[in-house]
Amino acid sequence: MNSILEKFRDSDLKIEPSVTTFLSSEQRGRVLVACSGGADSVFTLILLCAHRSTLNLDISVAHFNHKWRAEASNEDCRFVQALAQRLAIPFYSENSQSQEITQTETHARSERISFLRACAAEINADAIAFGHQNDDILETQIQRLGRGSALEGLIAPRPIHYFPSYPTHIRPVLHLSSSHIEDQLKAFNIQWREDSSNEDQSIIRNKLRHTIIPLLSEAMKRNVSEGASRSRRLLEEDSDLLNTLAKERLGACFSLEPRLDRICLRNESQSLTRRAFFYWLRKLIPNQEVSATLQEKIMEAIYGERFREKFSIGEKFLVMNKREIWIDNR
């Protein structure tokens, strides 16, 4: 394995540039790598290990077993554990406690993220590394466009995603395509695990990957995934500017004031108000999703002419009168 790592390090295989900058910063060296055993996450793990001495990285690997594919899922776990042993890095794992009949993609992701964050906290990791690659961008964009996502939804997945209460999420191979990753693994004779569920086109992401996006590329006579990647980067630049403006003009939302000035919100563009207000709402009522429909109703109320409005959000209420907006716990 050492010889493979040396060849990786000496090749032109590089970590995504902004991730390299992040990892080169002081006190950014402890990384937990999420590894399913698939090609993308195996490549991510080996690429980081190849550069760990250069970047002074302390790497661990974590695997979450969803138990969806019976013994095959257990074999995935054993594969990642064996790979960690060969790389001489700590290995952590956990099995899903959910009943298969109640398991969904959304719930599975929530379980996995909870495990990874708990594991990262236990080892005091600065970042969690994911194996998302360039093709994942367009797949995510299409799904989120279908749901009516705003700008924040369309710039995911990001190379670097900061969280105030959790380790930073990094994606070291977001600049590389799936086919390039698999070609490189084959060239270096590195094995990975194939998940049979990835061929199930009843799962929307698989349908996009295997049928819809290839047809789109053929029809447009271009690599649409590369175009989506550029769009994601440009939209992220726009998002960063809007965040800066929102913090300057609607600082009360970001300082989490218990009562907001409704008139102040109404005097700003809906773009800035939406961004600032729902940041405030997410922070004051955490772990409670506000649907797109409810978001639109709240925005209409903020800019509307009714003096008194009240919205139920979980066990709390969002209340507004002519001048103020606040959270009522009753």
Total E-strand runs? 10
| Percentage of β-strand residues | 5-15%
Cα Rg = 22 Å
**How far is the N terminus from the C terminus?**
60 Å
- Overall geometry comes to globular
CATH topology of the largest domain: Rossmann fold
Largest sheet: 6 strands, mixed
- Counting DSSP H or I runs of 4 or more residues, the number of helices is 15
Helicity range: 40-55%
CATH class of the largest domain: Alpha Beta
Uncertain parts: none
How would you concisely characterize the structure shown here?
By secondary structure, this protein is α/β, with parallel strands linked by helices. The protein contains 15 helices and 10 strands.
Outline the structure in words:
With 330 residues, this protein is of the alpha/beta class. The protein has two domains: 180 residues, 3-Layer(aba) Sandwich (Rossmann fold); 78 residues, Uridine Diphospho-n-acetylenolpyruvylglucosamine Reductase, domain 3, CATH 3.30.465. It contains 15 helices and ten strands. The strands form two sheets. Strands 3-2-1-4-6-5 form a six-stranded mixed beta sheet, with helices on both faces. It has a four-stranded antiparallel beta sheet with strand order 7-10-9-8. α7 crosses α11. It is globular, with a radius of gyration of 22 Å.
